[in-house]
Design brief:
Structural class: alpha+beta
Shape: globular
Radius of gyration: 12 Å
Helix content: 10-25%
């Protein structure tokens, strides 16, 4: 079974970036990634979910961008497996 998580950048500062994330544009949670410590924080769960699957997938994608993509965060991206 394929997995897809949409990520849409909402806000970015020198210290953190905030993304909306979820299975589609109508069901999005929010997470913040500290760009200095690489620590993610779930701000809002994806509506109707009980697991942290989307959050963990989105957080891992953003940490990878921070470490491997020179910290340049795109306006939209996705996680797929």
């Amino acid at each position: 079974m394929a997995t897809y998580v949409l990520l849409v950048k909402e806000e970015e500062t020198e210290e953190f970036v905030v993304y909306k994330f979820g299975p589609d544009k109508n069901n999005l949670g929010r997470l913040r990634l500290n760009k200095i410590s690489a620590e993610p924080e779930e701000i809002e769960k994806v509506p109707g979910t009980t697991s942290n699957f989307y959050y963990f997938s989105a957080a891992s994608k953003l940490i990878r961008i921070l470490k491997e993509g020179d910290g340049v965060f795109p306006d939209t991206t996705s996680y797929a497996s």
